[in-house]
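COURSE: Structural Biology Practicum
ASSIGNMENT: Worksheet 4, Part C
STUDENT ID: 0417
INSTRUCTIONS: Below are two proteins. For each, the amino acid sequence is given first, followed by its structure token string. Answer the questions at the end about the second protein only.

PROTEIN I
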Amino acid sequence: MDNIAFDYGPEKEEWKSVEGGTNVMTEAVVDMLKTKPTYNKRVTRVALDRTRKGEDKMVVVTNYDEPPRYYTSVINTTTLACLQRIDTNDLELSPTVKIATRTLRYDSSTKVAIKFDKPWWITKCGIKSGGVANTDLPIRWAQDATRMGSLVNTDSPRGEHELKGLMLHNLARLHSDSSNFDEMYEMIKASYITHHGFDWAMDDYSSGAFANFGPGQFRALYPDLIRPQADSRFHIVGEAASSNHAWIAGSLESAYRGVWMVLERFKCFDLQEKMVQEFGNVPELETGKNGFAHLLVALGMLRPEVLAGGEKKRVEDVMKGKKV
């Protein structure tokens, strides 16, 4: 499925890596911003105040009791699990979005980075490329990641003797056969320097690794996740609100959509054209006269009572397991 998602087309994609990790990209974006982000300000409430004069009708409260801030639009980049913990009672979210924040499945992912004093996989095993291995050992993903996560501490690698032993043992098993397992295990154990484990399910900034839509969930939830909410001033972006969910590509494409719809809402068509010129289009955002993106913005501007009839029936159908 991964190959189908990214390897189709007449020309082969040219893949590139970022030296220093993806954090290099985010730091570069921050350097470009005129208004720098503020840190240690956990958002605890987002609301729409239609009675407020001017365009700054979005109310944002941080750390529960700090003075409110007012914005024209809000683009939400949290996971849906984190969005559920934010007070959105006065945000006019659609019933389907509320269902999504409570029920959308998130897969598990536990990563353990290990530092060795020499590249034994090259010198001993002759592995000079790759990065992916197939195995039925516990060092896999999904359900195995959930179980592995129970061995990870918040101050990794402290107190992770069992995790360390399991990792080294499984690596030796994966790179050996019955005749040389003991030799391989001793060599890997002697090369070990340290490790660091991380479980996304235990991280309070994510509360899960990535969206894993269950049966019928994508059809039922996705249309509302990409539709602007709250007078088209609140936009949900991130991999969960993308057809390429679970991938960084989905996060980037949904961010493009969110910015485009903010510009559409306030008729900044010149900036939309600039976006297209600099970044092109994204497949899941159909723009133009024959597209639907502008219609989503128009729907998002309607008051909840206007949408209530059709929305109520959709929610009832979803709860009954019917196709919508």
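PROTEIN II
(use this one for the questions)
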Amino acid sequence: MSALSSSLLDPVVAQTIDTHLLQKSQQPTREDDPASDSDTDSLLDAADPIFASHRAARLQQLSTALSAQKSLLSASHGTVTTLSSEKEVMETVTATTRTLLHFYHPDFHRCAVMDRHLEAMAPVHVEVRFLRIEAANAAWLSGKLGVRVLPCVVGWVDGKEVTRMLGFEGVGEGCRTVDLEEALVRGGLLLRGKLGSQGNLSGHKTGGGKDEGYLGWRGKQFRGQKAKDEDENEDDWD
């Protein structure tokens, strides 16, 4: 498990990492160097006065967490990746500790709103792989998961579904990004809230809409292509 995926980080280290990621998310992206050594050095220097108590252990944990951050960013974490096939989804979910998948329709306004929220969260929650797939390209998977409302967001930890959100029920379509973040923390996908007062990106309410489906934990196992073949005629994903 990645150091960033652990809930056992020292609170001071966790706060330092979260602040660092939030600041980086608000800066222009440097695709050639997602987490440079100079970034690490400057962060350690800046954090040094905070770490007077248990300094050596905290600096070691911070260094390990920053190395994990660099590895995750180089493996396409920190952005929302668009996939085009169910095979890609299965391979990614089964190979990744924490995964969020957005089923979307390119012409649906609500899906565009959800995309904006996820794009704001991805650079900060780098321990989670953020994915999206057009529902029409995932007909079998949509049917298996019972996706009937878009947008639909599903979260897995170690291949097991822990949370699901249909539409914006529980937060409202006009929610702030931080409200969506809190819902995903409650659902068990995100480790902790990181956006704080910075997470104020709002959705845009359209007239006459109904907020759909925060369903919470479902507990179905994501088992990959073999399970897909075996379960083709089954009603549930057990």
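ANSWER KEY EXCERPT:
Q1: The chain has a mean pLDDT of 75.
Q2: Helices lie at 11-25, 37-47, 55-74, 86-95, 109-121, 139-145, 177-186, 225-230.
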